[in-house]
């Protein structure tokens, strides 16, 4: 190559990394990448037709529901009222919320579209109550199956 010939445009600068940052790829790296891509495609399919703002608001409403149930500072009806008020503030996004929840929990799309904010609020509260109950059962079962500490008074 002489100085007057044009340089190829597809060359990229090489960024050196210190040896301490070198990593040997895992044997199953290609499988993990494939799984990540499949999960990303599933998430895209679930989120299709929704807005980022709607998804974030639903996430915050669901988090509020879970937090209120965990704190046990309100009765079930009070929590349903709080969530229902949140849903009515964002009433134009309720169809989007029902679409997302219908995709996450399955079922007929037309049935989910007919769900009103009071029913949706009650569903969220019941779902998180059931989730907390199952979590307690699992933790109780795992602690019951754990081996007991053995104490020995033997002198060695």
Provide a compact summary of the structure.
It is built from 6 helices and no strands.
List the helices and strands and how they pair.
Layout: H1 29-47, H2 52-71, H3 76-89, H4 94-105, H5 109-113, H6 117-145
Helix pairs in contact: 2-3, 2-6, 3-6
**What is the helical fraction, as a range of percent?**
55-70%
Structural class: mainly alpha
Mean pLDDT: 82
Low-pLDDT segments, ≥5 res: 149-154
Radius of gyration: 26 Å
Amount of beta strand: under 5%
Number of helices: 6
Please report the total strand number as a whole number: 0
| Separation of the first and last Cα atoms | 81 Å
Note the main sheet: none
Outline type? elongated
Order of helix and strand elements from N to C terminus: HHHHHH
Task: Provide an overview of this structure.
By secondary structure, this protein is an all-alpha fold. It has a domain at 50-127. The protein is built from 6 helices and no strands. Helix 2 (52-71) packs antiparallel against helix 3 and helix 2 (52-71) crosses helix 6 (117-145). The chain is elongated, with a radius of gyration of 26 Å. 12% of the residues are buried. Residues 149-154 have low confidence and may be disordered.
What attributes does this structure have?
6 helices, single chain, 63% helix, 156 residues, disordered C terminus
